Amino acid sequence: MDPYEGFREFVRGRQHALMRTAYLLTGDAQQAEDLLQTVLMRTARHWRKLMKDGNPEAYVRRALVNEHISWRRRRRAKETLTAQPPEIVHGAGPEDVSLHRMALQRALLRLTPRQRAVLVLRYYEDRSVDETADLLGCSPGTVKSQTSHALGRLRALAPELAELLHDVDPEEVYR
Amino acid sequence: MTRFRDELQLIAAQAPEVDLAERAVRGARRWKAATFGSALASLVATALAATVLITTPGGATMSGEIANVLPASGVDPAAYAYYDFCGREWDYRKNTKTFGKECAQWRLVTRTGGSFRMPEALSVYTEQTPDNYMNTGGPLEISSDGKRVAYYSEKDQKFAVRDLADGRIWLTPQTVTRETMVKNGMVLVLSPDGRFLGLLGATSSVVDMETGQVTEIPEGWRVRRIGNGGSPVVVSDDEDRLGLFDDGKVTPLNKTSEDISELSADGRTLAYLDGEEIKDHIVTRPVDTVVTLDVTTGKILSKAKFTDIPGGFRFPRIGGWHSPTEVMLSDALRDKSWEGKKGAVPTLGEVTYAIDVNTGRIRKLAEHTYKAWAGDLSLPGF
Q1: Distance of alpha carbon A159 from alpha carbon B29, whole angstroms
Q2: Closest-CA residue in chain A for B315?
Q3: What's the ipTM?
Q4: Do A91 and B283 count as a contact with CB atoms less than 8 A apart?
């Protein structure tokens, strides 16, 4: 029996969504691909067991976030040398929209991996505090405080995002 | 759905499409070898990171400490300046008013390692309202030779330029109230020698700080760079179109750039970064070229693609000239080492680089850092 039966179909069905999350977490296409590939390789190793458990995607998402945050991963990321600048793709359109998006990308990169992960899970994947806490392996209280810290740092690091962040309800972090 | 969520969705949509299924399976089959390789890489990376920490110039300064007041004279040129909210966590809704303290003042770090607070330079706006929380503090600019500093003097309600060596202080003729600063903010531009100060608010002007002469910039334009001796003055409009201001009028340069270098020692050359490509409203390629421009003729003098790009180099700003052929770039420091350590505080700051305008070669110069959750940092010439 092929130990990877169903794995390829799973990856092809979910990899674009996973890649988008990885891209937001890392801010860099090459690192996002590296991160996702690392996690999928580990998923493949445990595929038969994960299939039996019935929810391989939950495992992949948890692994994606935690691998991104982990110490070893961070150290390896510091070592990455590139011949070309990372292919950060900036949004454009109306001038201010383009500038806002570039500023947000810059500011996100200046957050810590955990702060970035909290914002991605809460505001990109629209997860509740409890779901986010479960994925990060921490308490809901920690998610709330990390969300506050992350939004606060975005505001401090990128004053030009005032209008963009204005309609992020600060109380929403306590939902 | 908030605009913040919308923007995250749009950024995520820029992720390239990949097909990782086969690569993941192949990787899983080679897992043992891959694990060994990763462990080896991890050991090497840790050792290199430790080396970087030891050799980093201007290493992280501890926050919350109260530094000595800047001496009246005899101060060495500045390497950078920052304020750090006393190293405490800042919540714009709750505790802004608590930062009217000595430890929250602008702190100047000299090239020789001295660290001094500047009580006369307004830093955190303690009365700032949550509705205007992005305007967090008074500006401070350092001339590219590090010898003069421009700031908002609260006691005078004017902008000031101070010579660090001889202690002379010049004030602008114009008065701006603290209330106006808190409400609207103000951007400052210094000439490389620190004699001329550009003001960008509701209107824009250039002040010769040594004579007090004020030159108003025509409506619709704002000062971007000022040469030594007060000329030339490079301006831009709301769409970042560059122009040369001289004798009361602006001559368009037919170039657009949102970030330009200081004028070089010849008084006519400036550099900017180019190469960005946009398709269907999406920037598909970031800047990859440094261009020099003769502002007196509007002619391009040189173009060079980036080479020898250091790791971690991503979103550069462009500043002053490091040598006749190299211009300074700066990028935000991305510190991850504190994460997961109980009681640890992040290291914020900027990394500076020099790029050769003829070859495009980039080399790292220094890291300027401070320990804090939030703050602001000013580098000479940026």
Answers
A1: 48
A2: A106
A3: 0.80
A4: yes
